[in-house]
Amino acid sequence: MTLEEVKQAIRNVPDFPEKGIQFKDLTTVFIRPEYLSFLKQQMVQKYRERGVTKVIGIESRGFILAPMVAEAIGAGFVPIRKPGKLPADVMEMRYEKEYGTDVIQIHKDALTPQDVVIIHDDLLATGGTMQAAISLVKQCGVKHIYADFIVELDALNGRNLFDTDVHIESLIHF
Ligand code: AMP
Fold first, then answer.
1. How many angstroms is it from 123 CA to the middle of ligand 1?
2. Fewest C-beta atoms under 10 Å: which of 1, 33, 126, 158?
3. pLDDT, one tens digit for every residue, the chain (174 residues)
4. pTM higher than 0.85, yes or no?
5. Minimal-distance CA residue to ligand 1 atom 9
């Protein structure tokens, strides 16, 4: 199996959720157990020797692979969620979207200064969501951050938004 085969299985949905957006639908990949397993293995190989202690998933499409990889590399799983979902004390970050602002939260006691973390989301578009997650995680204080995606939309240059000390990894490029 190759990443090119997985790329071919991604469904492109024009004009979703609004006109002009080419939505990359990964449900057509996740529904195939051999693809799910292949993507997990690709990530596990990459991170196994990097001393990662926690894999952070961004709600909600980051919740699919992040816990699978966390379990496989012997790391913990931590969710970053939309407001009103996490029950204990939280830290939060507000960020600009195309229309209006958005907020993400993490539990205050989820991370320690010794943690080496992967922040995972399914797809990198403009980078706004991941940069907010990076700022939030930095506010908590960790040793090192990997920003990880299944898919990166290269033309949008989202990676240029990220701090230079963050290590960026994507498996499939459009
Ligand atoms: P951004 O903050 O612009 O990098 O957007 C990233 C978030 O929006 C990710 O959680 C993606 O799931 C979602 N997203 C943005 N653009 C697309 C797209 N063209 N196809 C699929 N998901 C997208």
1. 5
2. 33
3. 999 999 999 999 999 999 999 999 999 999 999 999 999 999 999 999 999 999 999 999 999 999 999 999 999 999 999 999 999 999 999 999 877 899 999 999 999 999 999 999 999 999 999 999 999 999 999 999 999 999 999 999 999 999 999 999 999 999
4. yes
5. 123
CA distances from 154 to 31, 48, 115, 123, 144 (A): 25, 26, 29, 11, 24
104 C-alpha to ligand 1 centroid (Å): 15
Name the residues annotated as catalytic: 61, 98
Give burial (CB, 10 Å; 0-12/13-18/19+) of 63: middle
Q: Which atom of ligand 1 is nearest to the CA of 132?
A: 2
CA distances from 156 to 13, 141, 152, 159 (A): 18, 29, 9, 8
DSSP secondary structure string for all residues of 82-110 = -TT---S-EEEEEEE-SSSEEEEEEETTS
**Residues in contact with ligand 1 (CB, 6 Å cut-off):** 21-24, 61, 121-129, 158
Of 80, 123, 151, 159, best ligand 1 pocket probe by most atoms within 8 Å of the beta carbon = 123
7, 22, 44, 45 from 50: Cα distances, Å: 26, 34, 10, 10
